[in-house]
């Protein structure tokens, strides 16, 4: 249960900030965002603020921002269709009622002759069976279907109406939000826990290590080992690793006084190599500027590592059965959570970078796939046919779901069978 809760909290946060990036840039571009959802499937909780419905759905495996013009189903008024119009005081249409018209006593029943709800914003038709009238549709106006209101989106509020730059930034904002989240998390870890520094100073000691038994203390500055001067923590580590089981003479400074301490590193075999260990962690510091620098370093490091891993997957150096899906990530998240909040935060930051990079891959149904079509549009000077693009994304989504099933089955076999 702890693993499940940890996974839901961590993955939910990553999806939330990813979709928030899309939402903020879409709203900034003037796109009507109908829904901001975390998860898929049936709604568990929802509320509406301004134009957008915010929902939490049952399956916490992703999320989406539903933008006008990107709806899978759209409502169109056809010639001969009978609808009800609710008018404001100036005679403009506020609501177009498609059914349950009897709920509205003052409704104007119209047999539609023509309707343009994108550019012209009007409806023409016959009232009382014979009188022809033209009605202007105001902004905002709503369809009412099964007593549910759906806001009408004029063309200038739709995703496709925006400039190539606005559309590109709206899609790109999701992955960028993941990178920004990782950077912020790494900075917070540095501010709260500290960040490692390459100084010749003894950090935290393990309870049963050789360093504690010999009398070393956290904060001791190492001047020399066996007469060789130490300038960095890296030099200390290399010297200790090179002398397993051999007494080392540490010359240290503590409280302004120099003293000598003899420490014998414990011999331990790691990957076929015998090295020396004394049970000391790298020294840590806390500062705002240092935390920001460390955050940038960590974000760059893990970005490079994940990109390298993806490159190995493409070239065949990385096996498909080594990938993890939701089940594997949930199990790993639970194990990391047992190590403490800072480890969980770092794990979440790494997953956020991974989510951002994967979404930037030029594959159909991913953000990178959308960006690839925008690049083609920039070269051609006109967009790709929307139906053809939609079919490509649909096929890509189906293949991704198939890959997800394969990876999930591998996880189940790996962890539970």
Please describe what this structure looks like:
The longest helix is centred in the C-terminal third of the chain and has 31 residues. The protein has a five-stranded mixed β-barrel with strand order 3-4-7-6-5. Strands 11-10-12-13 form a four-stranded antiparallel β-sheet. The chain has a two-stranded antiparallel ribbon with strand order 1-2. It is built from nine helices and 16 strands. The protein is 42% helix and 27% strand. The mean pLDDT is 90. The chain is an alpha+beta fold.
List the main descriptive attributes of the protein structure presented here.
alpha+beta, 16 strands, elongated, 42% helix, four-stranded antiparallel sheet, 417 residues, five-stranded mixed β-barrel
What's a quick, concise take on this entry?
Helix content is 42%, strand content 27%.
């Amino acid at each position: 249960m702890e693993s499940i809760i940890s996974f839901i909290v961590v993955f939910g946060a990553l999806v939330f900030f990813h979709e928030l990036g899309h939402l903020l840039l879409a709203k900034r571009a003037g796109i009507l965002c109908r829904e901001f959802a975390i998860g898929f499937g049936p709604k568990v909780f929802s509320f509406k603020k301004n134009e957008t419905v915010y929902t939490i759905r049952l399956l916490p495996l992703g999320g989406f921002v539903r933008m006008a013009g990107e709806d899978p189903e759209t409502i169109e008024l056809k010639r001969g269709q009978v609808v009800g119009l609710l008018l404001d005081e100036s005679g403009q249409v506020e609501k177009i009622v498609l059914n349950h018209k009897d709920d509205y006593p003052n409704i104007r029943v119209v047999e539609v002759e023509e309707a343009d709800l994108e550019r012209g914003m009007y409806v023409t038709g016959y009232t009382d069976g014979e009188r022809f009238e033209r009605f202007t549709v105001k902004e905002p106006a709503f369809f009412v279907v099964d007593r549910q209101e759906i806001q009408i989106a004029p063309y200038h509020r739709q995703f496709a109406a925006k400039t190539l730059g606005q559309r590109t930034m709206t899609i790109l904002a999701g992955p960028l939000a993941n990178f920004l989240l990782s950077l912020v998390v790494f900075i917070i870890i540095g501010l709260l826990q500290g960040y490692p520094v390459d100084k010749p100073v003894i950090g935290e000691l393990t309870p049963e290590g050789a360093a504690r038994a010999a009398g070393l203390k956290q904060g001791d500055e190492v001047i020399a080992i066996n007469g060789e001067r130490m300038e960095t923590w890296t030099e200390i580590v290399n010297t200790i690793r090179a002398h397993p089981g051999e007494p080392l003479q540490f010359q240290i400074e503590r409280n302004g006084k120099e003293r000598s301490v003899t420490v014998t590193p414990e011999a331990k075999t790691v990957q076929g190599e015998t090295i020396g260990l004394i049970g000391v962690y790298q020294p840590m510091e806390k500062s705002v500027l240092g935390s920001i620098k460390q955050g940038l370093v960590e974000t760059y490091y893990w970005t490079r590592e994940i990109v390298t891993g993806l490159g190995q997957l493409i070239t065949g150096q990385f096996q498909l059965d080594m990938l993890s899906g939701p089940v594997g990530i949930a199990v790993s998240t639970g194990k990391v959570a047992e190590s403490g909040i800072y480890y969980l935060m770092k794990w979440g930051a790494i997953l956020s970078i991974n989510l951002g990079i994967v979404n930037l891959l030029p594959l159909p149904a991913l953000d990178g796939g959308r960006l690839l079509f925008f690049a083609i549009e920039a070269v051609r000077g006109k967009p790709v046919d929307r139906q053809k693009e939609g079919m490509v994304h649909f096929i890509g989504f189906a293949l991704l779901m198939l890959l997800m099933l394969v990876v999930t089955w591998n996880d189940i076999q790996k962890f539970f069978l």
